[in-house]
């Protein structure tokens, strides 16, 4: 109730975009054809100086808010109260973490995750328009359950935020390699794909060109964040072309998928660590891009079996060689991306307007 009482605006442009997309939807218009600039919060600025005006999130990001949207319209209440949904999912996530922590039968085992989760909730307040707790909740359910409901939850997370896509290959590996019952795995994946298709196909058919904008890399927006590789870019330390960050994401993702698959028996419960690492290489590194994985990471610690199996590792072949290749590729590509940026002469002096009297 305290969190709900603190809701007094949209908080982020994401929530205002979602609210406006629902206005479009209930007016019979395709939300992905929407051209809208936030009025009550700071917008997302593009590199060319304009403001982001298109809706680029997967469809469940606004479908989920339909009940509260209709209730708000019925009461003629301010639109920013759709943030109530974020608060509800915040509570659900806390409960799920608590239930999983109790299984350790150690009262002190809960203290670190509770502390870190509270810290996370303060830094990325759900009542202030940060809805990252929603996909995090669905990802946690998909992680904990091996049944049809788990598959549906994974599809809901993937249809809510592109950030969930970072975890998708690791969860699928976790289910396929970790579950001995092939029928369970088959049902999980079938319901995942059925739900994914059901949610996305209507909007794909409505206007496929507009819908495909959800496959965005954010490289046309200005870099934002306090952590991550992009810090060296907007700090002016070493300027790189935006495409380099997309490239590095792909390279690092392939390497981490290989490591997780190759050493799955040892790394099984560490799957939430890898999306956090991949996030570090993104062009935009907002705080929630990292913090959304912390609660999930600690649930993984709870489920860890500390009696690890023996595994034979050829350090040179399995680790050092691919790591060396990745470093060479990223460093050489980084130098090229830097030279390309400098040669494009991104800062050009068009005119100098002196202030005051000219001293000559």
What Rg is obtained from the alpha carbons, in whole angstroms? 23 Å
Distance between the termini: 67 Å
Q: Assess the beta-strand content as a share of residues.
A: under 5%
The average pLDDT score comes to 85
Query: Which sequence of SSEs, written as H and E, runs from N to C?
Result: HHHHHHHHHHHHHHHHHH
Question: How helical, in percent, are the residues?
Answer: 55-70%
Low-pLDDT ranges: none
Question: Helix segment count?
Answer: 18
Let me know the largest β-sheet. none
The helix-and-strand class reads mainly alpha
Q: Tell me the total number of β-strands.
A: 0
Question: Looking at the structure, what is the overall shape?
Answer: globular
Helices and strands, with pairings:
Blueprint: H1 2-5, H2 13-25, H3 60-63, H4 66-75, H5 83-102, H6 110-123, H7 133-144, H8 148-158, H9 168-178, H10 182-206, H11 208-211, H12 231-234, H13 243-262, H14 264-267, H15 273-279, H16 287-291, H17 294-302, H18 315-343
Helix pairs in contact: 5-6, 5-7, 6-17, 7-8, 8-10, 13-15, 13-18
